[in-house]
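Comment thread on ticket #2218

A.B. wrote:
> Attaching the input chain for the structure job we discussed in standup.
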Amino acid sequence: MASSAVLELALMLQAVAGVADPAQRFMPVPAPAPLTDPCRDRGPVGRWVRLSADGAPKSLHDAGWLDSASIWNGSQMVIAQRRDGKWTGTAFDPCANAWAPIAETNEPPPGAPWPFPDGQDRPFRPSYDGSSFNAFDKISVWDFARKAWLAVTAKAGLSPRSHYAVALAGRRFFVWGGWGKGFSVLGDGAVLDLGRKSWKKMSAAGAPSPRLEPAAVVWTGSRLLIWGGRTGTNVPSSAHALGDGALYDPVADRWKAMSAEHAPAPRTGGTVVWTGRKLVVFGGAGDVSGPQQHDGGIYDPAADRWATLDPPPGDVALPHGNVGPLTRIIVAPDGRVVFLPDNIDRVAVLDADRASWSIVDAAELGKRNGYRAFLVGRRLIIWGGSTVVAEHICPPPIPGQPICDSWAETAPHHDGWMIVLPK
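C.D. wrote:
> Ran it. Output below, let me know if you need it in another format.
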């Protein structure tokens, strides 16, 4: 089956069956953490130090993240879990390398961005039309300043859609592109002003070509950046990945095309990071069922210029997601990007200004998954998780033979480590 037909069939089945569209989940692109290390004595640089075991909590590796919290409150790492409607837990002080219990509370630990009060995993709730398509004439958006849901009923001028680009920037909520009914790919968008509770259609002049699942959707602080993604219509030859993009200025209501010189090959998905100054795009796929890309690029919007990004040394597999407490991509205050892979035994650090990599050995951590991670200044803290101790992988299926079930046995880690990263 042609790749475009595969894409159309998959999206059609999602729409008919009402399957949740993963692209609609709010997956914020990592942005720089404005945190500084509270410890005057930073300790040894470039060497892992084990977290104290005295008073340490049990691992949360098997707890649903909506019922657990792992946050940095400005001076401590707080590990908490909700039981019988109450939050209880323990706080870790990296300066003293010591744990202490927190007071029982009805609220999540202060500073926890996840979950929202009613268990939502994204800060917007559009209305549905009975399928996986979202409509926007009625929508609720989380107001971070007021810590409350803001319901808006106003004409958005947008047709129902899925697989669209979405961004929440202060008091503005952006929706653009996506997959529409009738197997159409959309190239329009609108901006919701949360203060005025009103929508404004985006100008079409200079906008990117219609697309769904953009590879990069970033708010730069003044512009909405959209790059990559794929087309997909009922014309078989037209389904392909895209390698262009544009920047939208909401004040001037104007699009400006991004330079294509030295840009990465067309793709969708992959790893995307905003360092505060530059966009990092790495990996992803060039087609619906095509091979994975193993390169990337770094875009500087101030100079409108791309730089080529080679793979990290040592074949380190970079993570793709960055949602909730299981953060795997963290941006340091200086703009460096820390990538924390599954089965962690090495940490990849990218200097986006120089397009260069460095690798930090992490053999002490025992190749764990499901761990919590925080970067405070240059201090990286890893806690909990689990390690696979036995795994059965099924062989290729054999006609007429029973279906095989894969399984894995894991052992939890009730410990943690921290390291001050070299400059």
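A.B. wrote:
> Thanks. Noting for the ticket: The longest strand covers residues 134-143.
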